[in-house]
Amino acid sequence: MDASATFSRSDEVLTAAAPRSPQSNRSAEPREAPSAKPKSTAASPRVVRSLFVSDIHLGCRHSQAEPFRELLQRYEPRYLYVVGDFIDGWKLKRRWRWLPVYDRILQRLMTLKRSGTELLYTPGNHDAFLRNFLANFGVVEVRDRFVHVTADGRRFLVTHGDQFDKVEQGMPWLSLVASYAYDVLLSTNWLVNKLRGKKDDPYAFCGMIKRRVKYLVSHVSEFEEKVIESALASRCSGIICGHVHAPRIVEVGGLAYCNTGDWVENCSALVEYHDGSMDLVRRNGEVIAHLPVPAAPDFPNIDSPIESQERLEGAEVEGVLVA
C-alpha cells in the first residue's frame, strides 16, 4: 500500500456488489422515463487526493442519486471513502426500490477503481448488513473505521458516527420511528413546495426543521464531543464522519470535526487536495467550509514512501495496527 495514506485495521476485508431485486418485484417499481439519460460531462474530472461521501441512502425515494452520480463524474480521487449509509437497507427491506441511476453510480465507482482509485467503505446504521454481503468480492476495503493520513501528515479517524449517537445505541426503536417520521416529513414538504411552484430547493423548509432537530439531538447526545473524544483517543488530528446529515467543519478542543453531510438534502462531500487542505463542497462545487493546512504539519513530505513508512510503521490506534 502507498505509504502516503495509511489505514487502521479491523478483523476482516470485505468487498462490494450491487444488490438485485427479484424479477417479480421490479415490474411494480417506478422506472425512469426512457428519455432520462445521464448528462454528459464535457470537462475532464478534477484529480484530487481524497473524496469523502456519506449518507447517499440509495433505495430511499428522497435520495439525490443523479446529483451524486454527477459529483462522481466531476472528481477523480486517489482515495474514495464511503462513510456509511450508502444503501438504505431499512427502506429496501420495507419496499424494494432499485433505479437505473443506481447502476450508473456503481459503474462509475468501478471505472474509478480500474483507473487506480482505492475504494474504502465504513458501514453506517442503515447499511450495516453490507458487512457480510460485501465479503465475497475484492473491489472495496471495508472497515468499521479507518485512520486516514492526509498529504501533510495529519491523521483523521474516519467512521460513520452512529456508534456515538445515544438514541441510536440506547433506543434503536426510537431511531427507526424517527427515520420513518422524517421520510413522511420530506414527502409532505416536497409536495407542498411543488404545489407552490418552488423548484429551486424542494426541501428548504424541511431542511430548516431538520437542522434544528438535528442540532438538538446532536447537542443532547453530545455527538460532536463524543466523536472528537474518540479521535483524541486514537491519537488523531480530527475526525471525518456522517450520520447526522449536517455538513460542517469546526474545531473542537483543538481537533477538527468534519461532517460530510448527506445526499438527501444537502448534497455535500468533503474533498482533500494534494497539499492536504480540505473543502466541504456542495453538488455544484460551491465551497461550504475550508480546512487549511496547519502552519507546522506533523509529517512534512508525507508522500515520501520511505519517510512515511519509517514514521508510521507499527503505530497502534486503540489496539488496531496501522499499516
Termini separation (Å)?
8 Å
Strand content: 15-25%
Order of helices and strands: HEHEHHEHEEEHHHHEEEEEEHEE
CATH superfamily of one domain: Metallo-dependent phosphatases
Low-confidence blocks of residues: 1-37, 299-323
Architecture per CATH nomenclature, i.e. the level-2 architecture of one domain: 4-Layer Sandwich
Helix and strand composition category: alpha/beta
Gross morphology is globular
Helix-residue proportion: 25-40%
Major sheet strand order: 4-3-2-1-10-11-12
Number of helices: 10
Mean pLDDT: 75
- The CATH class of one domain is identified as Alpha Beta
Question: Could you characterize what this model shows?
Answer:
The protein has 323 residues and is of the alpha/beta class. The chain has a domain at 44-162 and 235-321: Metallo-dependent phosphatases (Purple Acid Phosphatase, chain A, domain 2), CATH 3.60.21.10. Helices cover 32% and strands 20% of the residues. Strands 4-3-2-1-10-11-12 form a seven-stranded mixed beta sheet. Helix 2 runs parallel beside helix 4 (100-114). Residues 1-37 and 299-323 have low confidence and may be disordered. This is UDP-2,3-diacylglucosamine hydrolase.
Short précis:
By secondary structure, the protein is an alpha/beta fold. It has helices at residues 23-26, 65-74, 89-94, 100-114, 130-133, 166-170, 172-195, 204-220, 223-233, 305-312; strands at 46-53, 75-82, 118-121, 141-142, 146-149, 155-158, 238-241, 248-252, 255-259, 268-272, 278-282, 287-291, 316-317, 320-321. It has a domain at 44-162 and 235-321: 4-Layer Sandwich (Purple Acid Phosphatase, chain A, domain 2).
